[in-house]
Fold:
Amino acid sequence: MDAIEKLMFQRRSIRKYKNEPLPEDLIQDMLRCATHAPSPSNRQPVRFVRVKSPHYRSKLQDALTMGHARLLERRKAAGASARLKNRINAYLRYSEVMFQSPVLFAVGTCTQTIGFATHLAKAGLIQKDQRTGKDLDMTVGLALKAVMLKAQALGAGSCILTAPLVFIRDVENVLDLEDISINCFLTLGWADHDPPRPPRLSLEQIVRVI
Structure:
């Protein structure tokens, strides 16, 4: 097993962190790796917004709490099962991890990014720009992977969180972001648990030859 395989096989999603700060130089090293992630036409649209101030963390937590209550009310009105209520509560707990993490980022892309498909759509050569959103999602994933592998190499833990965006309406407004569209949150810190390796599909299950 080479070094890259070892990092990828050992990485886990960390949901419990030690109450110890990550050195700023290590955080910068992780982010620097993201700047080398590939992007379509080298547009480099990914942005990391560090949510550090108590003001914005409090705004996020309030929005999360209100979103949770709103979903429970809708579930009740729809007559949905108690199992769904338990699921909503479970994902709230997963989301709340971000408020205990030493480092929290909201990760997204520039809203002004224009890709190849956008130019074609504007010129009337295709009916709709169906590619740019997928391209941006892929680019965010590549940048996140770079950060997380570097974190693993430095002995730190990380976790991507998308569940909060189900609860929080207009997260960009909550964070006063006018030029960035948020895809997810990323937590970083020193791991305070060692979760077991989750089951993985085999190559035969994920690869198809046609």
Remarks:
- The CA atoms of residues 30 and 151 lie 6 Å apart.
- The mean pLDDT is 94.
